[in-house]
Design goal:
4-stranded mixed beta sheet; 3 helices; 10 strands; 41% strand
């Protein structure tokens, strides 16, 4: 018989909070009786979109990422601050339009992933967007430096190998798309 051992939370202290992130420090007890602490980050669920054009190329965005001090290419992604409980498909459509100006006729869910299950509580909903039509971007102020361009599968693989794409969820979504194509 399989027994699920669960870590017991003894207490929680919120050590930081802003409109995007809440950080907790939990006092915990492990199944073996030993105690410890666990840092936990609460963030809103979000969506990542893999926009695929009719010619097979993919739309990506590049922007400066402050925490890692660099510019990198990635698939459009984000959350709706004003509506954190929005339907994930709505979030995906909104982020696609804001960041690339593209509107998708079809949104196909590829899967869900935990961005960092040992640290954060949020879920990333991953979509393939097809039937793309151009329109204006509506970027947020912190996305003012963002640029967007189309790339082939081979170019994206080369960009991953050369370090121009380092976002783990972008790489993972690219892998989910390959799995979907193989099935």
């Amino acid at each position: 018989m399989f027994v699920l051992d669960i870590i017991e939370r003894l207490s929680r202290r919120t050590v930081y909070r802003n409109r995007w992130t809440t950080v907790h420090e939990d006092e915990i007890r492990f199944p073996n009786g030993q105690s410890g602490i666990y840092g936990l980050v609460e963030k809103t669920d979000f969506a990542l979109v893999v926009p695929q054009h009719a010619d097979g190329r993919f739309q990506m965005v590049e922007q400066y990422r402050y925490p890692v001090s660099g510019r990198f290419w990635e698939f459009p992604a984000g959350a709706l601050e004003e509506n954190p409980d929005a339907d994930p498909t709505e979030i995906a459509r909104t982020e696609l339009e804001e960041e690339t100006g593209l509107r998708a006729q079809v949104m196909t869910k590829l899967g869900e992933q935990f961005p960092a299950s040992g640290l954060t509580t949020n879920v990333c909903h991953i979509y393939l967007a097809t039937g793309l039509e151009p329109g204006p971007t509506e970027r947020e102020s912190q996305e003012a430096d963002m640029i967007t361009a189309k790339f082939s599968r081979a170019e994206i693989i080369e960009m991953i190998n050369k370090g121009a794409v380092k976002d783990s969820l972008t790489i993972s979504a690219f892998g989910l798309l390959a799995i979907a194509d193989w099935g």
